[in-house]
Amino acid sequence: ERMKRNPSAPRDPDQLPEGVFDFHAEVLRSVLERAAELGISKNDVWDVLGMLALAREPLSLEHLQAFGAPECAEEVLHLASDWFHPRPASRSPRSAYEFNHVSVGEFLCDELTSNEQKRLQQKLAAACATWSELKDEPRDYALRHRLEHLIAAEAWAEFAATFADADFIAAGIELRGTVEMVRLKNTVDATLRSPRLPDEWRKGMQQWRRFLLSREVQLPGCPAAYAQEVINEFLPSAPPLWQEALGPLRSELLSRESPVLVKVSGPPALGERWHSELLGFVAISPDAQLAASWSEGMSVRNRIRVWEVESRKLLTVFYGHMQVVGAAAFSPDGTRVASGGADATVKVWHARTGRVLADCHGHTAVVMAVAFSPCGQRVASGSADDTVKVWEAKRGCPISEGCNHRDWVSCLAFSPDGRLVASGSADRTVKVWEVTTGDLFSHCSGHEGMIRSLAFSPDGKRLVSGSADRTAKVWDVRSGQMLSNYWGHGTTVMGVTFSPDGQHAVSAGADNTVRVWEAETGECRSAVFLNCIPVTVGFCFDSSTRLVAVDQGHRVFIYEWHAGAPGNP
Known about the structure:
Largest sheet: 4 strands, antiparallel
Low-confidence stretches: 268-279
């Protein structure tokens, strides 16, 4: 009684008053005798008391009932009231049953055989596996401690297979963010410290730890990326046991309605940087065969290099701009490259030979954006002189000019039919122009930062924009009204596009993520991480629905777009 009521009572077993464990033995004998008189079996008593002793935190009656404890759990707790304070009669079902001294749990664990402990640990782990059916505190407990019970049960295969439950991992990350990533890493560390961990599991466990550690910062900001990161970045090189444990995640992911990005190629596809300078930019041809790169470094600032993506072979170097290159873009057929520079000119080049095909003069300041029309016969350019100009791609003759922006033009996009061209600006607006006349068609306002990227939907009725305000927005082209707002990137949205069917929008952010959004609702359905921060350019779909993303390290990532299985939740 003195120890129960004194919070400062010694907890070191060597310092406990004499007879403490004799007292516990007497309480246990009394509980078992009275339980037998009530028709409660010894196994039921041990199930209740053992679950309390092995739990990672105090359990309430609500926990015990949710975790499959015997129906007589409440009666057993009343019989063992000498071990609890306050006594069970004064508790609500949600009040935790905490032993009044640490020695109680130690005593009960000592009384359980190793096999009984393992059985109860497995029972608690199995209960935690039903986390999606639980509510409130039992659900939170399951999210926190499922893995720990599997470690205690030495269920290594089940421990690894738990990471195939993508919803379970994502729910934990959403609940506790970065703390959850630290906890996951700590549970793996605890597994590696176990002397009972078989050698065939140890190597894969170490590899899995490195995988979690490398995503410790990114995943809390985007839990939806977890499953795709596992199938794209871990499984291809995982040991056989881990491939077997996590393999179901791939089929489960592909059976969902949400779109999936399955990595086809990526680092070390391009490997090292193409330029020695720290800051570089790159454009990819629509078929993802060629890449054009340029840099603001002093030694190569007026050059454009064209590479074969797969072989990394340098095809040619464009010389012609007198000052730094500001933008470049491929023609739809990939045979030409348009570029703009600080010399206020726009040039059209042969992609493989570097021959200048057209020279466009008319801007009065650095050209910051260029784009080809879908037919490839026209080139649009945006400049720091606040204007948008459209040129004939073959001869370089001017066609029209739009001059309604109040700051420099940062990005451009043609509509699928080539009749309209959209421009984004540092003035935080998007404007849509008639190509042939230069007349303003519509005006989109709502971003709070510079517009960094634009793309039309396949039907040409919607326009998606990415901004330095960390959002992507979808607009009605005709009215300029905002239809959807995509919020989730941690920093600037560098690239945007629509899926081939127009049902999803894709954004690439300087937070190192590529995210897939439901076009109408703005819900983030999936995501992948890139290697380099920030992402400097977006991505494009070629005819085979491959998604191409490029990071600032000039590494090209190609993903196969799986639209999802209709009808699956």
